C-alpha cells in the first residue's frame, strides 16, 4: 500500500503554513502510514535536513523520523520543510512553510552586536566632549566676569 499522511500531521500534500513565535519551541509532524513501512527523510528548502541536525542540539528527529523537533524558534529555521516519504509501492512529499515571528533583532549575530556596541561607545564619547566643552565654557565666562571691574 502506498504511503499516506495521517491526521494530526501539520504537513500536507498541498502544503501548509506554520507560524511560530520566537523563541518558543515547535515541531513539525509528518505522521504517515503505508505497507511496507515507509522510509522518511526531511528536506529544508530542498536540502537534506541532516546538515542542520548534525552537531546541533536544538533540532532533533523522533518517532521514526516522523517528528522534527526544534527547541527554539529562530529565523535560521524559517523555510519550506518537506517530508519525503517512500516505500516500494509509492512516494509522497507533504510539506509546510515555517514562518518565525517576533525574533528580536538578531542579537545572536556577532556583527550586529559589534556595530551596536561601537555606535554606543561613539555616542558616549561625543556626549562626554560636549559636557566638557560646556563646563569649560562656563568656567571661562566666570573668569571673565571676575576680571571685569566693578562699576
From TrEMBL:
InterPro entries linked to this entry: Ig-like_dom, Ig-like_dom_sf, Ig-like_fold, Ig_I-set
Pfam families listed in its UniProt record: I-set
Keyword Transmembrane: yes
Top-level taxon: Eukaryota
TM region positions: 112-135
Keywords assigned: Membrane, Receptor, Transmembrane, Transmembrane helix
Protein name (Swiss-Prot/TrEMBL): Vascular endothelial growth factor receptor 3
Organism, scientific name: Armadillidium nasatum
UniProt gene name: FLT4_0
Amino acid at each position: 500500500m502506498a504511503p499516506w499522511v495521517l491526521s494530526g500531521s501539520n504537513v500536507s500534500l498541498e502544503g501548509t503554513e506554520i507560524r511560530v513565535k520566537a523563541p518558543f519551541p515547535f515541531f513539525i509532524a509528518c505522521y504517515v502510514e503505508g505497507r511496507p513501512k515507509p522510509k522518511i527523510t526531511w528536506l529544508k528548502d530542498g536540502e537534506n535536513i541532516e546538515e542542520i541536525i548534525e552537531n546541533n542540539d536544538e533540532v532533533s528527529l523522533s518517532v521514526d523520523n516522523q517528528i522534527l523537533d526544534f527547541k527554539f524558534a529562530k529565523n535560521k529555521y524559517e523555510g519550506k520543510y518537506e517530508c519525503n516519504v517512500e516505500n516500494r509501492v509509492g512516494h509522497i512529499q507533504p510539506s509546510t512553510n515555517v514562518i518565525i515571528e517576533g525574533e528580536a533583532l538578531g542579537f545572536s549575530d556577532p556583527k550586529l552586536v559589534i556595530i551596536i556596541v561601537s555606535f554606543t561607545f561613539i555616542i558616549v564619547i561625543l556626549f562626554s566632549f560636549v559636557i566638557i566643552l560646556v563646563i569649560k565654557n562656563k568656567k571661562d565666562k566666570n573668569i571673565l566676569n571676575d576680571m571685569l571691574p566693578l562699576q
